[in-house]
Amino acid sequence: MSYDIDFSEYFLFDALTDHLHGLAAAYPALATLESLGKSWRERDIWCMTLTNSATGPHDEKPAFYIDAHIHAEEVTTSHTALYTIWYLLSQYGSDAEVTWLLDNTTFYIIPRLNPDGAEISLTTAHHWCGNGRYLPGEEQTRGLCQQDINGDGLIVQMRIEDSAGEWKVSKDDPRLMILRKPGEYHDGPYYRLYREGVIKGEWDGVTFDIERPRDGNLNRNFPAGWWSEQRQYGAGDLPLSEPEALACARFILSHPNIMGMQCYHTHGGVHLRPSLIAPDSTLPRSDLGLIKRIGAMGTELTGYPVISVYEEFTTDPDNPRTGSLMQWSYDELGIITFSTELWNPELAAGIAEPAKYQIRARSTEDEIKLLQYNDEHLGGKGFVNWQPFDHPQLGKVEIGGWTHMYTFRNPPPASMAATEQARRFLPETIHNNCLFTLKHAACTPLLRIDSTQVEALGGDLYRVTAVVANHGFLPTNMTARALKFGTAGQVEAVLEVSSGTELISGAAEQVIGHLAGRDERVTTWSPWMPDWHDTKAKVEWVVRGAAGSELTLTARAQRAGTQRTVIRLG
């Protein structure tokens, strides 16, 4: 039985839920669907567990975690997560890499962590919204508040003529607003630019605030480095005060087999990596090397560069982003995590070095390229031409500008695309990023029992020896950060004797410590290289028992899986 999905259009919550149930029903040996809890508006926070149940339970295999749609308007992210679920299930048995992954590892995928905010973004003009704690119109209470005031179903911009304004109309394209030059006074008219909306609360007719919405940014609600709303917009009342963030954190903590993580966002066309709060010089060198080697596979598959959040994605390093999931997952748990900003309209418009515009204003030349991209590939649907409007408080204004949702934030769905190339933007984005996720997951540490040996010592005594090995790329401790904070557990070998058999020497449970991965052997050995750590360990016991007696050997590592084998004496 198979289950096909048309990924050319985005899905509302009910359609997404139907697809998840359909996939779980079509592939019962590989997929299990569960709800991690409820959102503010009582929608389920779905999680799909994927593994081949015939090769072992999910929690005895190293696991890869994916979440998406933590921010309301980032709908491409849940599309990518759902596509990854579909791809793993539909390709099992025919794709060698997919088959190996589901036989040997587990995937935990949360396709829509913020179901309420997503529904608001997909069904209203309010794309800038939080997690549903406040409905549109409730999230701002004073000053200029976003609102679709002309009833066209969009919230764009207002321009108001003002001799002290910062903007003017470009001579290259009358749709384009460009910044007024320093010392410029004679090339107007000049304008102020605002988000389309109305003024709430008391107003003196002249000045007004632009209040930050009280909407809750789930990616500022995690415990690592949490700051209050006074310092960090959207942080919430307390760490994990939002039900969606709490459900996510509880799941991660209750699944210590998670060895890698991918968080999907939009937009930017970059793979973001740690650190969020400190320069690269403060990271353990071995961790930075691992992250860069894994990230290089992402660049090869997607074309996206891999950049440090702190050094290359933070507008003001004195005020870094804090309280995010990636800060918590790497800085405190030691799990290598990428936060990919999917989709880059600048790249689609043929702009050189498009990632630079994530923290900088675009040049006039590149703004014109984006307008040309809109005209050609979107049929003009991405930009609203400026139209006069009588504002109930501000008087004569003009409303227009970029529509944002399916121009910058997300690639256009097929129904909005005007060219065949534009119709490929969405499927190529989700497919290529899915492939990088699988490559990252395949870097897992992988515990195996390489061999066992029984040696008769005379009488009814036997020496039992086993070699336990890490066959994976990552070490069993994953990172130096995890080793420092003890969040990866240790490798253990446990020998269980049957009735009538006695353990004479060697502890039944032996702690091996940690085993290196292939990452330490990226070059041949030389005396100038750091010391190599071993990928294998030998353990032994002496037991007394009758020939034919059975023993059970279990090797386990928190992030690298569990292996068992039966040993017979004699």
Give a verbal description of the structure.
This protein has three domains: 13-121 and 216-343 and 422-441, Aminopeptidase (3-Layer(aba) Sandwich); 132-201 and 347-409, no CATH class; 447-568, Sandwich (Immunoglobulin-like). A hairpin with a 7-residue loop joins strand 7 and strand 8 (177-179). The protein has 570 residues and is an alpha+beta fold. Helix 2 (75-91) crosses helix 12 and helix 6 (285-302) runs antiparallel to helix 12. The strands form five sheets. Strands 1-2-4-3-11-14-12-13 form an eight-stranded mixed beta sheet, sandwiched between helices. The protein has helices at 13-26, 75-91, 96-104, 115-123, 243-253, 285-302, 309-312, 325-332, 345-348, 364-377, 405-409, 420-441, 480-485; strands at residues 31-38, 44-50, 63-67, 106-110, 143-146, 157-161, 167-169, 177-179, 190-195, 197-200, 258-266, 270-273, 306-308, 336-342, 383-391, 395-402, 447-458, 461-470, 491-497, 502-505, 509-513, 536-544, 550-557, 561-568. It contains 13 helices and 24 strands. 44% of the residues are buried. The protein starts with 12 loop residues before the first helix and ends with a strand. It is elongated and about 105 Å long.
Fill in the CATH topology of the largest domain: Aminopeptidase
Q: Uncertain spans, ≥5 residues at pLDDT below 50?
A: none
Overall body shape: elongated
N- to C-terminal distance: 47 Å
Offer a concise description of the structure.
The protein is α+β, with helices and mostly antiparallel strands. It has 13 helices and 24 strands. The strands form five sheets. The protein has an eight-stranded mixed sheet, sandwiched between helices. The chain has a six-stranded antiparallel sheet with strand order 8-7-9-6-16-15, covered by helices on one side. It has a four-stranded antiparallel sheet with strand order 17-18-22-20, with no helix packed on it.
